[in-house]
# Entry
Amino acid sequence: MDFHWFLPTNGDSRDIVGGGHGVPVGAAGGVRPLTIGYLGQIARSAEQLGFVGALTPTGAWCEDAWITTAMLTEVTERLKFLVAFRPGVLSPTLAAQMASTFQRLSGGRLLLNVVTGGESHEQRQYGDFLDKDARYARTGEFLGVVRALFRGETVTLDGAHVQVEGARLAKLPDPVPAVYFGGSSKAAGPVAAAHADVYLTWGEPPAQVARKLDWIRSLKPDLRFGIRLHVIARDTADEAWAEAARLLRGVSEADIAAVQAGLRRSESEGQRRMLDLHGGSRDGLVVSPNLWAGVGLVRGGAGTALVGSHQEVADRIQEYAALGIDEFILSGYPHLEEAYWFGEGVLPELARRGVWQHPSGAGVSATSAIPFAGVPLNAPAPAPASSS
# Structure
């Protein structure tokens, strides 16, 4: 299994930061100043800890993902960047050219997260006036062109939503970036089956995730699957739930009311499913063992977190993996510190279980020695002297 972290280009905080699906940034808590230096800290930490890539969001509520991640390639070495973008705001030829350039100049570190767009009011800010079903149809045409260009074909298409004539790439991307795609609407399934390498879902309870994966498998049996979750992992379950309670205390009733009113207008089926988990109430937020829906009270999009001890969180990850989830896209508040809690607590636990290994191929660090004692740290205690 592969793990990805998240770059909070809408701001970071020790409290839950709003954003996504029309939610105002900073709906709860103060926001840390957003700089390339700070994002670089997160990216380098994720790389060192063993995350394969980092998702960067798209929308009017955050910084541009293409520009931000291109800058971050200069301060990282291995980390891949899962760049979210929307087909309605650029041509497929330009998107394919940008992807090809990114791959060459970054050494092949681009992954593509195609976001159809669930909010018409936000799409209209970018000059996109199609309705939701038409947006999915356009995404299918868009990805058909991009895929053909990646294969080196010259493409002419007079589609319902996409028109290109004699389109081609002067240089092909190497490797071709994987396409990640999510959507819970009926119209999303055929697009995923035709064009995606990885189908993404938000963090619903395992039974609901299983039904969604079965739906996609019925359309295309060989897709990979990924899940988007927040995480609060600590040495003990009590410490983890105490942190969840602290985050919840930072959320006012006014925050919840304002955000939920906005989210209830969402056209996104995935967002509706997130809302159904908590109903806008502080009560009953544990919707499945170790799955907490509190984040979704003030944040659009992914609204659930795995909460528990390192061992419990590892258990839940293995539970999702048993359903067929191969990739986990995670985040936590603040993103720098929480990356270390997960990377130094849960990932080693999964490594001990033999289900994960560091993508760099590095093994367990060499044992350190206690200064002046002449014995390694964590060495077994010497055998007691014989009494005979």
